[in-house]
Amino acid sequence: MRIKAEPLTAAAFAPFGDVLDASGQPDRFINEGRCGRYHDRAHLDFGPGGRAGISIFRSEPRPLPHVLELVERHPDGSQAFLPLDRYGFLVTVARDENGRPGGPLAFVTAPGQGVNFHRGTWHGVLAPLRGNGLFAVVDRIGDTRNLEEFRLERTLTVY
Amino acid sequence: MRIKAEPLTAAAFAPFGDVLDASGQPDRFINEGRCGRYHDRAHLDFGPGGRAGISIFRSEPRPLPHVLELVERHPDGSQAFLPLDRYGFLVTVARDENGRPGGPLAFVTAPGQGVNFHRGTWHGVLAPLRGNGLFAVVDRIGDTRNLEEFRLERTLTVY
After folding, report:
1. I need a labelling partner for A35 at 20 to 30 A (CA). Which of A94, B3, B56, B90 fits?
2. Does the predicted model carry a pTM greater than 0.95?
3. Residue B139 has what pLDDT?
4. What are the distances in angstroms from CA A120 to CA A73, A117, B24?
């Protein structure tokens, strides 16, 4: 199966998570008007027994076409990816259909955009298209495994 | 008063907060070995009645020399700055001396580094040296004002 990656929009991504960027007007200005604050843009959910943590991920670049053989989800918490670089990355997601990933969608972020996957959202691995591959990740710190993987019946190619 | 900004190191910054970067070995590898996870690197503290949130800040560039007339602190929570760009930024901090900021220090981050100010750390305003001025900020969402400002008796110039 082959799908085309589309530019990321908040509307298209809404069933899966939040787009974290500086679109629209800031909620308020700080620092004598020299800095805009786009306030509290992620639906963070770390469930019972979890707390927020910040980790750093460093991934190899994964240029297109990107071939997926499995997707994963985190049943116990949301997970936000914030690129510490100027380049976009690939985001592949799928709706849940009775515990299995349904029809996948793929998006490419714009520079300066992050995403927050809502708790339990099926997604592909972190896929920087180019650049240093560094991300800050805000996700659940806790004692559970918090990982489900699903091996796809048919390989998915994102182009 | 004039001080020189030095390259940021975890040791020098330890009294004030955490350096968030991919230095050293990852705590573990994920994605079939293609991505390193530097796990849970920030001491997050949102106090009673607070929760974690992710906001986006967009600041004007503030090239050196940088002139500070005030510093601020957030008594109710930690605050992390994660640059959504490839450039370093200026971090000015001061120790607390009986409720007032003491001798200040200034640091310049490397590309791909963020910082987390510990709860109550005196610091200057967000100061990207160049680039898009975009940051993801992980700080306390809550009902308190969570802001103290201190106007410096003598202007501080960081060069």
Report:
1. B3
2. yes
3. 98
4. 5, 8, 31
